[in-house]
Amino acid sequence: MNQQIKLNFINLVVYFYLLFFVLLLSYTFYQSEIIYNGEQLSYYYKYYLIFISGIVFWFSSLFLNKNRKFLLIIIISCIIFLLYFYEIIRFYEKQLLQLNFLKNINKEVKINDNLKNENKYSVIQRLKQSEGSNNVVPSIYPKILLNHPIYKDKNNILPLAGVSRKTTVFCKEGENHSIYKSDRYGFNNPDSQWEKENIEWFLIGDSFAQGSCVQPGEDIASQIRLLNKQNVISLGMSGNGPLLELASLKEYAFIKKPKNILWLYFERNDLQDLKNEKTNSILLNYLNKNFTQSLIYNQTKIDSQLNKYIKIIERNLQNEILHVDKKEKYLSFKKIVRLQIVRDKLSLDRGLDFGLDTMFEKILVNARNYVQQWNGNLYFIYLPDKERYSRNDINDGDYLKRNDVLNLVNNLKIPIIDIHKDFFAKHVDPISFYAHRIYGHFSSDGYNKVTEFILKNIDEK
Fold first, then answer.
1. Which of 24, 149, 234, 239 is 20 to 30 A from 207 in CA distance terms?
2. pTM of this prediction?
């Protein structure tokens, strides 16, 4: 009787694994053929092979004797256990390294252990007590507004910056939060820059152009002011992609007609951001030659809109402290179950190829032609992703469509300053340019060195 029960249990486990692989194969088919309409077979074929092989393996094992079945179950179960053990350890690595007995053997933890732990909400509340509740706001980005019904209506204004003339609590990738006083249009600049008659430089871009997450005076715009003693305005906002950047250029550059425009392109997510931006009807209008929202004349209305939205942001920040973020816990659980880190290490989670969006070329042509109206110079600054230097399996030209992007820009006769090939790749330790060697943005020294390199290259062109 016991032998029969044991055999039934073993068969049940085999059937479980067989069903598991059938479900995984079905999910792969759903993703590949339903979600992506069969256009991503080059990515999903490896999962087809793995799951079909799994089905054949476990179906074949049904015909083995009891002992061999049991041995296979033990081996496969141990492998699965080790994979998930590795996944969990790597996923919670930072938290585990904070344990006292590990701090002394990890240099990065020694650095991180000295970082202050004040959260963003607490910083905002502390500053409100000293500066007044109406003078301090959390940072807000155009990207988070794009899918809001209000900002999809062509009759409404879509803001391209934050609230004007406010102490803005930005981000933290080090000891202190980055905090700056926004200018008259909500950007990270000294407001006095807008009073200057001649502006030599405009920065267009995302968080790198905005100055994530360094202190005032350490961002690229500030470094240019320091090094060249020239006037600079940054229109950078976190999360900006090409279409938002074109919109910012058209709304704010015409009043100053700067001599040089630095278009900061970040290879990690700019093309991905474009996919979301192109769903917003207001943004699409910026591809038309004469479209404008006249934002510089509507700042009072913009501030009024954003102040309402900021109240929601502050409530969310408070809720993150007072309550457990169930969504975040669910996402963490989902990543672990899917073995996200293991799949990345095995290069299984890369390969989706959507091609280079034709709209990207239209945007660059539009920007180039717009700047040429006042004989300005447009420079394309290629900023590399930190992960490029953290892995050994990267094909330099194919990674994040690098060659496709650079060939396109070259064909458009837009000068390129390649921070990866001409600077970081030649350095013995490029990761040293990133904040604490951990975060995705540059350190203060990184911003300084990148700025020096950009200015040197422009002088030589």
1. 149
2. 0.79
Domains by residue range for the chain, with CATH: 2-103 (no CATH), 120-323+357-460 (3.40.50.1110)
Q: What is the DSSP letter of 75?
A: H
Q: Which candidate, 455, 454, 457, 432, places its Cα nearest to that of 444?
A: 432
Answer yes or no: are the C-beta atoms of 302 and 295 closer than 8 Å: yes
Strands 201-204 and 260-266: parallel
Q: Cα-Cα-Cα-Cα dihedral of 123, 127, 128, 132, to 10°?
A: -170
pLDDT tens-digit map of 347-362: 666 666 667 899 999 9
List 265's β-bridge partners, or say none: 382
170/182 Cα distance (integer angstroms): 11
Q: What is the CA radius of gyration of the chain?
A: 26
- 330 falls in which pLDDT band (50, 70, 90)? low
Q: State the DSSP string of 243-265.
A: HHHHHHHHHHSTTT--SEEEEEE
In degrees and rounded to multiples of 5, residue 137 shows phi and psi of -140, 155
